[in-house]
């Protein structure tokens, strides 16, 4: 493993978190209260456009995942 590659990847993830969501996605990701102890957890996505329509790429307990709006049906 190359430390610089890990740093570049981490910086990229941080920057991706601050990219505005696409038009029409007015809901926000739920807060993450606890996180796993893995140093570099596997991500299912990096940004919203990596997810199916109607889902957002959100931080989860362990890595980023595509989530649906839980409040949509209420």
Under CATH, the homologous superfamily of the domain at 35-74 reads Elafin-like
Give the proportion of residues in helices.
Answer: 10-25%
Order of SSEs: HEE
- The CATH class of the domain at 35-74 turns out to be Few Secondary Structures
Number of helices: 1
What share of residues are in beta strands? Answer: 15-25%
Q: Alpha-carbon distance between the termini?
A: 46 Å
Question: Key features?
Answer:
single chain; R-elafin; two-stranded antiparallel ribbon; about 20% helix; Elafin-like_sf; peptidase inhibitor activity; WAP_dom; alpha+beta
Please render the helix and strand layout as text.
Blueprint: H1 3-16, E1 55-60, E2 63-68
Domain WAP: 22-70
Organism: Ficedula albicollis
Protein name: WAP domain-containing protein
How is this structure best summarized?
The chain has 74 residues and is of the alpha+beta class.
How would you describe what is shown here?
Residues 22-70 form the WAP domain. Pfam families: WAP (PF00095). It comes from Ficedula albicollis (Collared flycatcher). GO terms for molecular function: peptidase inhibitor activity. The chain has a domain at 35-74: R-elafin (Irregular), CATH 4.10.75.10. It is built from one helix and two strands. It has one helix spanning 3-16; strands spanning 55-60, 63-68. It has a two-stranded antiparallel ribbon. A hairpin with a 2-residue loop joins strand 1 and strand 2 (63-68). It starts with a helix and ends in a 6-residue tail after the last strand. Residues 10-23 have low confidence and may be disordered.
């Amino acid at each position: 493993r190359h430390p610089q590659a890990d740093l570049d990847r981490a910086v990229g993830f941080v920057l991706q978190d601050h990219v505005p969501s696409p038009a029409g996605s007015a809901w926000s990701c739920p807060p993450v209260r606890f996180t796993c102890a893995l140093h570099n957890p596997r991500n299912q996505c990096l940004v919203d456009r990596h997810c199916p329509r109607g889902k957002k790429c959100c931080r989860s307990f362990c890595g980023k995942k595509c989530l649906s709006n839980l409040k949509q049906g209420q």
